[in-house]
Amino acid sequence: MRHWLIGLAALVAAPAAAQQDVQSLAGRWTVDLRPSPSAPAYTQPMVLSIGDGGVVTGSFYNSEIEDGLAALSNGRTCFAFRTSDGTAPYQSSGCLVGDRVVGQTWSEGRRFLLAWTADRAR
Questions:
Q1: In this structure, what DSSP letter does residue 23 have?
Q2: Which residues, in sequence order, are bridge partners of residue 103?
Q3: Which of 91, 50, 57, 90 is nearest to 72 (CA)?
């Protein structure tokens, strides 16, 4: 009976622990959008809010986040969302690696894929 209770406690605690990890994505980020490490710095703001069920809202590159979701997957805390510049959608995703987000954005309309990093805004 005791092993069953320990297992039940672990199942109940798991979603709370995962939600806590997902919440670590919340806040203001400065995204480095340089196309190469030698290019001049080019940064844009990203603000992430994490709601119930991992729903992501906020903004990226001065566009409102649409249909965002964050989750703990394979031991990583990650998110994905869509934004738009008024002409075409942008699909962005990233994962927390240490204190930094490592991500990428795919532009359907402009036909490019850009890898980027983000640090907490100061």
A1: H
A2: 94, 116
A3: 50
